[in-house]
Amino acid sequence: MTELVRGTPGLVRAVNDRATLHLLLRQGPLTRPEVSRLTGLSKPTASQVLARLLDAGLVVGNGLRPGLPGRVPETYRVNPAAAYATAVDVTPEHIAVRTADITGAVLGETVAPVPARPDREALVEALRTALGRVPTPQPPRSVVVGVQGAVDPTTGRLAYASEEDMAAWLFPDVERTLGEALGLPVRIENDVNLAAVAERDHVAADCPDFVLLWADEGLGAALMIGGRLHRGHFGGAGEVGYLPLPGAPTAREAGDHYGRHGYQELAGGNAIRDLLHSHGIPGADFAETVAEAVRRAGTVEQPAEAVRPADTAEEDATAARAGLVAVAARLAAGLASIVTVVDPGLVVLAGRLCAAGGEPLRALVERELRVLAHSRARVRLSAVTGNPVLAGALALALAEARDQTFGGPSPLPPHP
User: Could you tell me the pTM of the whole model?
Assistant: First the structure.
């Protein structure tokens, strides 16, 4: 086998160093012969690479590997203290923080309150306090902040955000200004985009072209094309709540206030709750109402205290099934427009509405989508547990921290 690249000695060394570091992240700890075999480097070159990385503090020894014939080999791994990355999820209710070392090992996480005052100074102080609850031995190389909005790269301002909930964020050059105030490299990313990044390593691991629909109180989507996020020229790709659809008021009719027209008016959380209420399904909020519809439809076993006369139970089940079909039809109506344009191989259903509907709702959405769109896209439920926004933010922060620390992206082929 031959070395990974040909070119100037400096370029060859840099690429070989990066390949070795990413290999150790992916499969380490490894011995020198294993590094040689898995990278294609000669044994002397592999030894030189490891020596350089040890001197630079990017690799450390991981002890001997006993049980092999001959000389007991030493193993090596990426130095966890080489760099750190931090993820932040900001909602109207909380600021969640998770920090990891460069290997991806989580060092800690916390949830802090949002500032009471909707101004920039209060926001900076709240973020500083939250970040201080999960300290690192040295400042993180990358901080990715998920928000309910998106930075418009043409203006540097946060767009597609609620002026009521995100008032403290609506100032010019938001990323740079916030980063300078915190003294950290800050990147702001749309929360639904981050959920899609998290799914890329889970339910969408076998499909580089997928759409994630986030169905919650608000609707949003993320487009992953060729394994990369598509954000759009103005940062608004996936803001599908504004999508005009038959059966919903248009912006011309309802004004441009988000939530009163288009896909959001048709299939947002409150609209779904009201739709199911009209089918006789009770519930205080949309997630509770959807879960009750699934239960009444007979897709899960009813508890003994819920047993009702046979005729009444059957009427409830029929109404619940009709309600779920109506919900699926509304969700599929917007998805049909998206998949027709993007032609993804997969649609991922995420958010509290889809979690409450579970497999019964997923199956109905897939059926309705087949009717409405000429698409063979599979439909799957989210597979990320916990906070998907925080998981996606940490994945992006780690990728950026590694690129900066290792001198660029991995030259290795994608992991099989």
Answer: 0.90
